[in-house]
Automatic annotation (TrEMBL):
It comes from Gordonia malaquae NBRC 108250. Keywords: Acyltransferase, Transferase. It comes from the Bacteria. NCBIfam families: rimI. The lineage of its organism: Bacteria, Bacillati, Actinomycetota, Actinomycetes, Mycobacteriales. GO terms for molecular function: N-acetyltransferase activity. This is Putative ribosomal-protein-alanine acetyltransferase. InterPro entries: AcTrfase_RimI/Ard1, Acyl_CoA_acyltransferase, Bact_Acetyltransf, GNAT_dom.
Amino acid sequence: MSDLPVIDALTEADLPRCAELEASIFADESPWPLSGFVAELRAPHNRYFAVRTAEGAPVAGYAGISVLGPVGGRECEIHTIAVDPVHRGARYGWALLETMLAVADAESAPTFLEVRTDNRPAIDLYERSGFRVVGTRRNYYQPSGADAFTMVRPAGGMSDQEERP
């Protein structure tokens, strides 16, 4: 038996669980309501994924990426990655990130994201996956006023010499 998580497409049936996780994980940062998840999932340029402990299990985490721009000039933007605190440390966030980066790599697109400047575990994960800080957005997260780093991973990702987690 494998202890690897199952990654699949997020469905509308999963969204109430996502909104529940969002409210608990991001309680101080204007969590997305259920209607926000519905709109994100329905947008044709977005791809959302779920991580589960097993096939058919409830959502243990979720992530979303947009593919923007014309063919040959695409850019991707990671909207969110969230993992139920019960499953943190099990590499679920990494599995979701790798899934989204495969979408970007298939489009030969650079990938952008924002991350709290004080979220060292997430920053470390992104740096190990080829992202680098390119700017700071002051007071990005509301209502807390926390700053965010803007990070980018070039199209095609990392060189073969760089280490992955």
